[in-house]
Amino acid sequence: MASKPSIPKGTRDFSPVEVSKRNYIIAIMRTHFENYGYQPIETPSFENSDTLMGKYGEEGDRLIFKILNNGDYLDKVSSEELQTINYKQLTSKISEKALRYDLTVPFARYVVQHQSEIEFPFKRYQIQPVWRADRPQKGRFREFYQCDADVVGSTSLWQEVELVQLYDAVFAELGLYGVTIKINNRKILSGIAEVIGASDKLIDFTVALDKLDKIGEDGVKKEMLEKGISEEALVKVQPLFNFTGTIQEKIEKLSVLLSSSEEGIKGVEELQFICDNVSKLGLQKATLDLDVTLARGLNYYTGAIFEVAAPEGVAMGSIGGGGRYDDLTGIFGLKNMSGVGISFGLDRIYLVLDELGLFPETVTTATKVMFLNFGETQSFEVMQTIQKLRVANIKTEMYPDAAKIDKQFKYAERRGIPFVVKEISNGLFTLKNIISGEQVQVDFSTLSKTLK
Amino acid sequence: MASKPSIPKGTRDFSPVEVSKRNYIIAIMRTHFENYGYQPIETPSFENSDTLMGKYGEEGDRLIFKILNNGDYLDKVSSEELQTINYKQLTSKISEKALRYDLTVPFARYVVQHQSEIEFPFKRYQIQPVWRADRPQKGRFREFYQCDADVVGSTSLWQEVELVQLYDAVFAELGLYGVTIKINNRKILSGIAEVIGASDKLIDFTVALDKLDKIGEDGVKKEMLEKGISEEALVKVQPLFNFTGTIQEKIEKLSVLLSSSEEGIKGVEELQFICDNVSKLGLQKATLDLDVTLARGLNYYTGAIFEVAAPEGVAMGSIGGGGRYDDLTGIFGLKNMSGVGISFGLDRIYLVLDELGLFPETVTTATKVMFLNFGETQSFEVMQTIQKLRVANIKTEMYPDAAKIDKQFKYAERRGIPFVVKEISNGLFTLKNIISGEQVQVDFSTLSKTLK
Which EC number(s) does the record attach to this protein (chains A, B) (predicted)? Predict the structure, then answer.
């Protein structure tokens, strides 16, 4: 292999600094997931194809990575068959497994498969990579992590309240102030479609409405008309195009608009409960806002819909989202299991923290101190000292070879190691601070304290 | 889908308890990897096929999971071609990516690809899953984690000394006392083959010798004879079949046996340096032993070879292994980069800790306290209290629905939640210890302290 090695497009190598930053975010998520009673599970990277296929629509099926059967996978395909077969037919004969596309379907499969071992309501979190054969572009990868918290088996709206608090807790600890947690409800959207006489066009209606901040009022109206929604209906939804005010004001407007829709009123009541309690309990750093245009995966959600926007001024799409789906596990044969959950977009959160300089410096400080290598005669004494420092959990290295001192110093600098021990003499250590240039001679106890 | 869902053979779901136990082991590894100056990297789950194929021998190629190209992968294969093609030829046309088989080859690829950004010597650790289409059996999976620490770009034998210490540090903190870290050296094996006149049969010789504890002295001799090693040679290696004594005694015996082999003597010197320094620095809980039959992936290693055996009495194969390879990155065009590394067998370590009851109880205690749900009127007060406990990092839940009290208690018991708050009245909390049955009425400050 003469050419420089590379990795598949849409995938990434993560350097030590990048892994450390990612792990910093993940550790904070974990802490709060667990404070809120969510427990970790993990599922296999690949599932049986029939677990995944048909769960994400036609587009999703296309984007799922399929794994070739091992051994002679053509064994059972006759050469006559091969002449006329198309690739989709062939796939089902030569591939039985596929890489997971998200964490929700595997979670539903897990719940059904392990239902007898699980205590419901089951609050689980899962932080694992997923794979999609999407066209790679800025911020979109073929391998990326999802960080999900879901609860299944409870219809209590306190779950929604807690999920808003959970978002707030994680972003507050990350130092990411000013995120907006947008909330809506599928029943509101259904109710609107109902009162404007477009129930049969619910999807078209909401897909168009969802584009309001991208294509503006006129664009949305044009699209709705094209989809066969009447001029009369558009007049009725006019209030939604300038839907401002406090949450309470918005809820009151919706009450009026939806007064004739049973489902719509149910949605208003749910929103009222969630927003009231979030408001009374208080958020640390985030703002909750009601956004009637929010639809996300509408076919999926049946109640609350969430989406998190980065602080104003940061050009980044949503950094999280979620919602309630009344029949999470039905696809695998377990009926009447309501689920509600949220997801954190690790990659985007990383980009936002990086852009705003919010990663603490300590995150990327790996090794704290490096001992110069003066050759074999002194190395043993160095190693004895290092051993003691490591017991005290101080990240310590000796430069492994007796290279030129200059080279050793440069190595420490480039690695970002803040301290170097230059000399050991009569039990005293000459410790140099690489950043300030300051140099002191100290005994072991002071050395250890300085580095702690 | 009517049938109960399942997962592909050789893969596993991990329950909350299992994930917690695995994360406990991984966290301890991470701490020590970093104390020793190793930095984390991560590489993509799949690599370009040409990065992996041909690196693990024919058997390895067969066990690599290949990923089907997306879209119409048959587009460029004519139907005439399909009639005569065999599956291996077809694979190269319809699959360009494959799941990684280990962490070493991706690491080598990473080093070469990022050589301009890396400061050498480069000490990296990597904890990620790998995939092999092996026949699943007890303790062998198709998806499993590898936990590797390697340093590349230094020939210093202090690295080997440190890797022995690193094994010891991790197993000591895991409470796994009495592991044996076995060490050997490829140069010793080459030297022996040389002095018995079987240099051309080095592989056959070491493969047979490696089986000593499985098939015994007679079995090994029989296999060696079958492979064409002479009776005379067998007489010369006789001392190896009862190779007992202290490390120092063994090294002295090897010095005599290998006196005529330059390579053999070099191996003896290396062993001497490593064992001497490990011994002088001292190990916490593990024992170092010289095992001349140890070969492992011989074609790979060029210097030290390591393997870790579980404590006596635990029936488990090796729980770790590694060694030095002088030309780690040569396969990707970067010459003269010596590497040495070790791997921890997460799954087996897990099984050993489980068998010996070494997981601390706290590892599996998720939620610390659950508040009973008495219906909407009291829920808000409960949620206010819970919010304060969570800020203090106490893992807290409210049972989400106003179910029967009995049901709520059973849920807490089954979940292993140790405390339940039964009642809130005038700012006092009735706290019940589920295990002891003890019940106290306390104010918030005492509640918080008790749960901390």
Answer: 6.1.1.21
- pLDDT per position as a tens digit, B346-357: 999 999 999 999
Segment B401-441, tens digit of pLDDT:
899 999 999 999 999 999 999 999 999 999 999 999 999 99
Q: Judge residue B147's burial from the number of C-beta atoms within 10 Å of its C-beta, 0-12 exposed, 13-18 middle, 19 or more buried.
A: buried
Give tens-digit pLDDT for A153-190: 999 999 999 999 999 999 999 999 999 999 999 999 99
Tell me how close the Cα of A61 comes to any Cα of chain B, in angstroms.
Answer: 10
Read off the tokens for B310: 């579980």
Helices A202-209 and A186-195, axial angle in degrees (round to 10): 110
What would the pLDDT profile of A249-290 be if each residue is shown by its tens digit? 999 999 999 999 999 999 999 999 999 999 999 999 999 999
Compare CB distances from A74 to B19, B90, B169 and report the shortest one's residue: B90
Q: Provide Rg for chain A, Cα atoms.
A: 28
Angle at B173 between CA B170 and CA B174, to 5 degrees: 85
Shortest CA distance from B369: residue in chain A: A37
| Residue A60 and residue A49 in contact, taking contact as beta carbons nearer than 8 Å | no
Check if the interface score ipTM surpasses 0.85.
yes
pLDDT at B2 over 60: no
Buried b (16+ CB within 10 A) or exposed e, A354-390: eeeeebeeebeebbbbbbbbbeeebbeebbebbeebb
The structure tokens 């990022």 sit at B114
Instruction: Determine which of A201-215, B259-273, B379-393 has the lowest per-residue pLDDT on average.
Output: A201-215
A268-302 burial, b at 16+ Cβ within 10 Å, e below that, comes to bebbbebbebbeebebebbebbbbbbbbbebeebb
Q: Best mutation site among A39, A150, A336, A364 for testing chain B: the one with the most B CBs within 10 Å?
A: A39
What is the spatial distance between Cα A428 and Cα A425, in angstroms, rounded to a whole number?
5
Nearest to A6 among B2, B12, B113 (CB): B113
**How many angstroms separate the CA atoms of B186 and B296, rounded?**
10
Measured in angstroms, the CA of B387 and the nearest CA of chain A are apart by: 8
Contact B41 A13 (CB under 8 A): yes
